[in-house]
């Protein structure tokens, strides 16, 4: 099968990217290893306005030039965006990829490229499969209501929507109904690729000690989705009751984002700065080292696609506490392969206190979380499932 992946941001560059972009790369490379002809188009970091190309693990990676990153990056964003639009119309993807040979295009829901692919679909005969890994589109509509009909028309025009979890599918339908958004594509399926299993070392369960807890939170500081604030309040409650101190507790919050300053201020306002530390974005290999040294990963959020950090923690056997929201309610069985919490400080402080005093529960969850992850997050197995879905979509008339 001939497949074209497209995302303006990707882990093929040195820029900071999230789990969604890392999953796209893993999909592309696993598909290539399965015998597919795979190209991946993304944005170049070069200041020289030209297309570049290189082979990476069997994938033909094409880097689009960008005025935003290039020699005119000093100009306002709206100007470089307009120049990028013009440049890509003149020297577009079709100049560098034989679209006549492409059977499927896999992309996010970025409106401009998605609409371009849909506009040219009949001409080239490919299928457009859109990845739905979150609800950023909903937040974009809230900020810019004029985009609602554009998203609605595009979502309902794609050949299939790939939801990364069943919980996200249900949540998308629910949120769409709340804003009278007709989300009725002709086809959809639920599947995700998993994570690179070979890069993960098993957590040392013997290091789980009673009366001691090293907590890690590794996710972006978002003002609408992530809830690091709940954890900070939970830490404050535990401190006030004398259950934790610097001798037996620490929490490291890793990430960047618009809400980081507000969370830092909250930490100072609640006088828990000796217990809570914020650190910026870190490379993957450094993050794995931090996870190996932790006792638990906490992931508080209002909703989630499928947090890659949760899967990575489970596969090394690091216990996870996650908000009781989709898709974690489908993945985590309370007290068996992880822990679930309501989104309030009382629930989170109770969970942290319980784990501090019950290392045996952590050891049990550690082993069962790893078994679950190895069964469900194997990229080779999931790639075969993906390709069956891609073939089915491409065969539709």
Could you state the CATH homologous superfamily of the largest domain?
Answer: Glycogen Phosphorylase B
Radius of gyration: 22 Å
CATH class of the largest domain: Alpha Beta
Order of helices and strands: EHEEEHEHHEHHEHEEHEHEHEHEHEHHH
Helix content: 40-55%
> How many strand segments?
14
CATH architecture of the largest domain: 3-Layer(aba) Sandwich
What is CATH's topology name of the largest domain? Rossmann fold
Helix tally?
A: 15
Low-confidence stretches: none
Summarize the SSE layout with pairings.
Layout: E1 2-6, H1 19-33, E2 37-43, E3 52-56, E4 59-64, H2 77-90, E5 104-107, H3 111-119, H4 121-124, E6 127-132, H5 136-143, H6 148-155, E7 160-163, H7 166-178, E8 188-190, E9 213-218, H8 228-240, E10 249-254, H9 260-269, E11 276-279, H10 284-293, E12 296-299, H11 308-316, E13 320-323, H12 328-331, E14 339-341, H13 345-357, H14 359-376, H15 379-395
Parallel strand pairs: 1-2, 1-5, 2-4, 5-6, 6-7, 7-8, 9-10, 9-12, 10-11, 12-13, 13-14
Antiparallel strand pairs: 3-4
Helix pairs in contact: 1-15, 8-13, 11-14
Short synopsis of the structure:
It is built from 15 helices and 14 strands. 42% of the residues are buried. It has helices at 19-33, 77-90, 111-119, 121-124, 136-143, 148-155, 166-178, 228-240, 260-269, 284-293, 308-316, 328-331, 345-357, 359-376, 379-395, and strands at residues 2-6, 37-43, 52-56, 59-64, 104-107, 127-132, 160-163, 188-190, 213-218, 249-254, 276-279, 296-299, 320-323, 339-341.
Question: Keywords for this structure?
Answer:
15 helices; eight-stranded mixed β-sheet; Rossmann fold; alpha/beta; globular; six-stranded parallel β-sheet; 14 strands; 42% helix; 397 residues
């Amino acid at each position: 099968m001939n497949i074209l992946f497209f995302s303006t941001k990707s882990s093929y560059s040195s820029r900071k990217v999230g789990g969604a972009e890392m999953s796209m790369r893993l999909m592309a490379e696993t598909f290539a290893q399965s015998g597919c002809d795979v190209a991946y188009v993304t944005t170049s970091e070069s200041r020289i306005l030209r297309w570049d190309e290189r082979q990476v693990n069997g994938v033909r990676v094409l880097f689009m030039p960008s005025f935003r990153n290039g020699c005119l990056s000093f100009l306002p964003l709206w100007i470089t965006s307009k120049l990028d639009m013009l440049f890509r119309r003149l020297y577009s993807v079709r100049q560098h990829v034989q679209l006549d040979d492409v059977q499927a295009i896999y992309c996010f829901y970025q409106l401009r490229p998605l609409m371009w692919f849909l506009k040219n679909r009949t001409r080239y005969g490919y299928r457009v499969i859109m990845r739905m890994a979150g609800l950023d589109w909903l937040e974009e509509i809230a900020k810019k209501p004029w985009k609602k009909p554009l998203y609605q028309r595009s979502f309902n025009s794609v050949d299939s929507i790939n939801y990364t979890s069943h919980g996200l599918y249900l949540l998308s339908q629910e949120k769409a109904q709340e804003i009278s958004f007709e989300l009725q594509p002709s086809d959809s399926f639920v599947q995700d690729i998993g994570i690179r299993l070979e890069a993960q070392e098993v957590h040392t369960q013997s290091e789980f000690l009673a009366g001691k807890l090293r907590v890690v939170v590794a996710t972006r500081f978002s003002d609408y989705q992530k809830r690091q604030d709940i954890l900070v309040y939970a830490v404050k409650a535990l401190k006030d009751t004398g259950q934790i101190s610097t001798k037996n507790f620490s929490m490291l919050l890793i990430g960047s984002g618009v809400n980081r300053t507000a969370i830092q201020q909250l930490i100072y306002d609640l006088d828990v700065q000796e217990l809570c530390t914020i650190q910026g974005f870190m490379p993957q290999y450094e993050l794995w080292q931090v996870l190996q040294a932790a006792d638990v990963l906490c992931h508080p959020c209002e909703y989630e696609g499928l947090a890659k950090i949760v899967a990575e923690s489970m596969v090394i056997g690091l216990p996870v506490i996650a908000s009781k929201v989709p898709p974690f309610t489908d993945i985590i069985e309370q007290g068996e392969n992880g822990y679930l919490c309501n989104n309030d400080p009382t629930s989170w402080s109770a969970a942290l206190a319980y784990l501090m005093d019950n290392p045996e529960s952590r050891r049990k969850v550690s082993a069962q979380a790893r078994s679950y992850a190895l069964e469900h997050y194997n990229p080779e197995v999931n790639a075969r499932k993906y390709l069956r879905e891609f073939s089915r979509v491409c065969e539709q008339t």
